[in-house]
Amino acid sequence: MSEHAIEFLRGWIGEKVHCQSHARIEKQAETLARECAAKAAEVGIPLEDIQEEVGDIQELIASRLEEAAEADENQQASAKAAE
């Protein structure tokens, strides 16, 4: 995968992937994967270049959404414990 494609994907995920409830993660991942593929195409990065490096981008995005949800839950639990 080209460095340009890697930088694009990292930036895009950082900008678009935010904490979601666990129930919405799969639907949100599907939507974001489509948006990512479209934006990559706009800037001249073939989806195949991204998938070659990371596999299924929907799975990657779902994983990042789950991590964000877990981090948010942990943060909320820590805040409640500190009260």
- The shape, in one word, is elongated
Distance between the termini: 47 Å
Largest sheet: none
Order of helices and strands: HHHH
Question: DSSP strand (E) fraction?
Answer: under 5%
- The stretches of 5 or more residues where confidence is low (pLDDT under 50) are none
State Rg.
15 Å
Q: How many helical stretches?
A: 4
> Mean pLDDT across all residues, rounded?
83
Range of helix content: over 70%
Helix/strand/pairing category: mainly alpha
Number of strands: 0
Instruction: Give the oligomer, counting copies of the same chain as homo and different chains as hetero.
Output: single chain
Write the layout of secondary structure elements.
Blueprint: H1 3-16, H2 25-42, H3 47-54, H4 57-82
Task: Name some characteristics of this structure.
83 residues; mainly alpha; 4 helices
Task: Describe the protein's architecture and organization.
The protein is built from four helices and no strands. The N and C termini lie far apart (47 Å). The chain is mainly α. The chain is elongated, with a radius of gyration of 15 Å. It has helices at residues 3-16, 25-42, 47-54, 57-82. The mean pLDDT is 83.
How would you concisely characterize the structure shown here?
With 83 residues, this protein is mostly helical. The protein has four helices and no strands.
